[in-house]
Specification:
This protein is of the alpha/beta class and 537 residues long. The chain contains 15 helices and 14 strands. The strands form two sheets. Strands 1, 2, 3, 4, 5, 6, 7 and 14 form an eight-stranded mixed beta sheet that branches. Strands 8-9-10-11-12-13 form a six-stranded mixed beta sheet, with helices on one face.
Length: 537
């Protein structure tokens, strides 16, 4: 295979990955998107091409770079530096994973077999990307199926990792089948078996998903919920206008559909633009306005976002998130907070715990500690935020309703969301601000994650975006009343609670943990064999 053929294949793989991705992609292309890379790996893994691992890395980097650029280019709208960093780092990470797969396959199986190794390596990479400080799981392969929620109802058993397994296995079988055609082995038994397996692997998950979708029934209490979308420009309005004006617009929108009291009103992230010190939130004029409104509707609860602060205790001075007062020797924490306000009840709150790297936090690594209060300015409070120690659930005075509040970026993390459900949530709420990226695929992709979380947990979701897409999602992933981008809106609907615990909620990312263990064995074995070969020769 000539070098320019390898280059064309690398570009083709990147284009296929991009063309499959939501929101306007053709999803089935994901099932052949890795095939060109498999052909490159097969060629560069041959004995006569020994030592070409560096070239494979660069070609994989080209593929994944194209994918990252074409699908997450919109990060640039909010932060050019952050956009470049996310695209470059994620591409390098993905190329490294593919190179490790190549290294293991060559050293363990002399490149004769072992494509399945990629499955364990990729699942392990995605698991790492969900759980370390540089988390960016936006392009985890299972996310590609969000436009086809009928197909993936079985995510309640596997989580999104099940989608990754489906993608990798289909690509392996597709590669073997195409390779057999190119080597004129179409009549071989192996070729026929590959065709049968390929068809079965494509049809069976879809049929299972459709069957689960048709048979799923919601059983529970209905909550009447109002969602507001105030539509403030995050660059020129939300952090510049008087806090009272922002609160008033949220309440006016809610009041316009309050002829009959609802159970809950959901406002967006960072809607309270007044600095609030905890635990004295009741002293805030914004909070008083909200409480006054709720007092007029005593059977209604309100969830809304705010920036809050709290003092640092003496035993917390070494906390990475502690920041020094500019005019004194004390320290304080900053939080991205969701409030739950009910009439004559103590205010409940939850602090965002999955923070956006580079925006709300810097990695807690020793060489980065001097940068802990440096972050990309997207309005609001800069620097590393203090997170909550647990997934707090808002318990309503109506004991039928227990709401899990997800703040913006948190809705990407499947196992993280299960923590709210295990703590008792029978409804989920997402509050966000998706105006940073403009009218691009970014806010639409972000919305689609809500569909995956609804299926995994079988919890209905009410989603309020400052602007973006506000909507309701039921336990099957069906979407209702999705609002247009960059428009003020208010929507109201009844959602059904659910107290059942799904297999995925109970066990979390068990598939990824098993894969990480298997990957460690593969990598250790491959490294040992590589060292032994060097000693022999």
């Amino acid at each position: 295979m000539k070098r320019y053929h390898q280059l064309i294949l690398a570009i083709l793989s990147g284009l296929l990955l991009s063309a499959a991705w939501p929101v306007r992609g053709f999803t089935p292309l994901i099932f052949i998107a890795f095939v060109p890379l498999f052909f490159i790996q097969d060629e560069l893994g041959k004995p006569q091409n020994k030592g070409k691992g560096g070239r494979l890395f660069l070609l994989a980097l080209l593929s994944f770079g194209i994918w990252n650029i074409l699908t997450t280019y919109w990060i640039w709208n909010s932060t050019p530096v952050g956009g470049i960093a996310a695209i470059v780092l994620n591409s390098v990470f993905m190329a490294t994973v593919f190179w490790l797969f190549h290294f293991t396959k060559v050293n363990m199986y002399q490149n004769q077999k072992g494509n399945l190794i990629l499955l364990f390596y990729w699942l392990s990479f995605e698991f790492l990307h969900l759980n370390w400080d540089l988390n960016w799981p936006w392009l985890n392969l299972g996310n590609v199926f969000s436009p086809h929620h009928h197909w993936i109802q079985w995510f309640e058993y596997t989580g999104a990792a099940g989608g990754t397994i489906w993608v990798i296995l289909m690509n392996i079988l597709g590669y073997k089948t195409i390779k057999a055609v190119l080597s004129f082995k179409q009549k071989s038994r192996a070729f026929s078996l590959n065709l049968v397996l390929l068809a079965a692997l494509w049809v069976a998950p879809v049929m299972l998903g459709e069957q689960l979708y048709r048979n799923y029934k919601e059983i529970g209490t209905q909550a009447d919920i109002i969602v507001v979308q105030p539509n403030f420009d995050p660059y020129s309005e939300q952090y510049e206008l008087p806090a009272s004006e922002i609160i008033d617009r949220n309440l006016q929108l809610a009041a316009s559909v309050m002829a009959k009291e609802a159970d809950f009103i959901i406002g967006p992230e960072s809607a309270i633009q007044e600095d609030i010190w905890l635990p004295n939130s009741a002293n805030s004029s914004s909070v008083k306005s909200l409480q006054s409104f709720i007092a007029q509707h005593p059977n209604t609860g309100l969830i809304i976002g705010a920036s809050t602060f709290s003092p640092v205790a003496d035993d917390q001075l070494n906390d990475f998130a502690a920041r020094k007062y500019s005019n004194s020797d004390g320290f304080y924490f900053a939080h991205n907070t969701a409030f739950f306000i009910e009439d004559k009840q103590a205010i409940q709150y939850y602090h965002k715990s999955r923070l956006t790297p580079g925006v709300e936090m810097m990695p807690d690594w020793f060489f980065m500690r001097p940068l802990r209060n440096v972050a990309i300015d997207l309005g609001g409070t800069l620097g590393t935020l203090k997170i909550d120690d647990e997934r707090r659930v808002f318990n309503s005075q109506d004991t039928n309703f227990r709401l899990g509040p997800l703040i913006c970026y948190e809705s990407i993390f499947g196992e993280f969301v299960t923590g709210f459900v295990r703590n008792g949530a029978n409804l989920l709420v997402i509050i966000t601000n998706d105006g940073w990226w403009g009218n691009t695929a970014g806010h639409r992709q972000h919305f689609d994650f809500a569909i995956l979380r609804a299926i995994e947990t079988r919890r209905s979701i009410a989603r309020s975006a400052n602007t973006g897409i506000s909507a309701f999602v039921d336990q099957r992933g069906d979407v209702f009343q999705a609002t247009p981008y960059w428009e003020q809106a208010v929507i109201r609907q009844k959602l059904t609670t659910n107290d059942r615990i799904t297999f995925y909620v109970k066990h979390g990312d068990y598939i990824s943990r098993i894969s990480a263990f298997i990957m460690a064995i593969f990598l250790l074995t491959a490294f040992t064999k590589s060292r032994m070969k060097k000693k022999l020769f």
